[in-house]
Structure formats: C-alpha cells, structure tokens
Design goal:
By secondary structure, this protein is mainly alpha-helical. The protein is built from eight helices and seven strands. It folds into two domains: 141 residues, no CATH class; 61 residues, no CATH class. The two termini are 60 Å apart. The protein binds zinc ion (2 copies). One zinc ion binds next to helix 7.
Amino acid sequence: MPRREVSVARSCDDVDSIHDERENLLYHEPRAITLPPGVTEDIYSNVRNSPPPGLVRAKTPQAISYSTYKRALASHVRILTNNDVSVFGDFAKYIEPGLDSAGRQVELDLTCHISHTSLDMYTRNSRPRGPNEAARTEPMAVLPCGHYFGFKGIDDWIRTRVKDEMPPDCPVCRFFLVYPQCGHEIKIRPYDARFQRDGQLPLTIPEGGTVPGYCLRCRVDWIRVMSQQLAYDIYPDDIPARAFINPHCCAQVEFESKRIKFQDKILDTALMAEADYSHW
Ligand SMILES: [Zn+2]
Ligand SMILES: [Zn+2]
C-alpha cells in the first residue's frame, strides 16, 4: 500500500492548511461501514448513538453512592448472591468463619440455577431463618466443576438425562458427571454447611480437587483382584505337606490364613489411602 504524504509545516501560515489536510484525511473520506445482516443504512442512522443491533456492549459498572458504601460498611453484613459467586470455591472460605477478610459478617443468599428456589446455605454467623422461610428452601448440591444447585433441581436434571440416554452433565458448563474410565455416574449428595465438609463434599476442581478415572467401587474391585493374585503368588495353595520346613508351626492351614491376612492388609491400606486425600 502506498504511504500517504503528510506535509510538514515550514512556516506559521502552513499550520492551518496542514490542519485542514489532516481533517480531510480523518473525517471526509467515505467510511466503509459493515452493517450486521438485516440492518439497512436508514435503520442504522436512527440508532447512530447506540451500538447497531446484534452487537452487545458491556454495561459500565454503576458506582454506588458514598452514603450507600458507608451504610454497607456500618451494617457489617455482606450479602453474597448468585451474581457475586459463580462456583462453590468462591464462597467456601466464608462458610466456616462466617466473616470476610474485612471482618464483615457474610450471609449467603443463593438460589438454584435450575429451579430458582432459595438454597439452604448458612455461614457460621448467619441469622437464623424463620420456619416459613426454611420451608421455601432446599439443600444445596455441589458438582465437581464447582457449580451449585438445589439438590432436587440437579437430581431431576440428572435423572432426565439418564432417562434420555444422555450422559449426565452440569447444566451450566457441561462437565460430564461420570468417571471417565469406568463410565459410572458421579453420585451427587446434598451438602449441609452446619456439619463438617469432610465426608460430605470433596474439594471441587477449581479448589484443587480431582475426579479419578474409576469410581470407588471399581477401584476397590480392582485392588481386590490384584491383591488376590499377589497373595496366591506369595502363598501358593499347591505346596505339598512335606515341603513345609516347620510342619508343626506352619503347614497348609497356617499358610492359607497368612494369605488371607496379607490380602486383607492390602485392601485396608488401599482404603486408608482413599480416606487420606479429598477426591470424588
Ligand atoms: Zn459446571
Ligand atoms: Zn466405576
């Protein structure tokens, strides 16, 4: 593309003419406007000050007034809604202390993304809910991807997917709710924040949690088969009686009980390892 020559002022008189020349270059050239499909020039000219239809412009954040800010600070309560938190990890840190880093009391006012029912979620410092209010809430369920729903809402969704012979998934991000290797369903349980998280809800993936390839049942089955194989390799069941060095303290019967103990030991070790770290 040939470069445009832009004149350089040599005297004060030249300045005005150069200014005009630049103005011409910038404003008086025919502008090529690409309109969105279905929008004609006259429609566009009526909405010159707003973006043409089909384009989405992000809203400018609204500043809150200083008095609102002061009131929020003075009330010492911070209410988190679905707009403030998108995944469980965003508010998990407030549940136990019930306070944010500024020392304000945190209350959760969350709803199910499917049924829009209020979720029965408390922090330690939440005000107690009245019986009428409590009747209109449902327990929360959290998926490995971190998205949270009402337990009934997500359970209905999963049952519908299974009935339609579709893999169950997260309605928000489409995370598959199955173990990738064995294909068994990841069971979703209600989470009650009044009790310890441990044993109720593993770490979600955004919090550093993992979904193993196989479900617990498949993992245990595999360990059982492998440990049996190993136990029979170490304690074979076809040793003739005369081959035992000390037949009075160790013969076939004792050998068999040692094999069973060995096998149980491997299984116990595997189950202890399962309980040592958080995973789905
Ligand atoms: Zn999700
Ligand atoms: Zn499985």
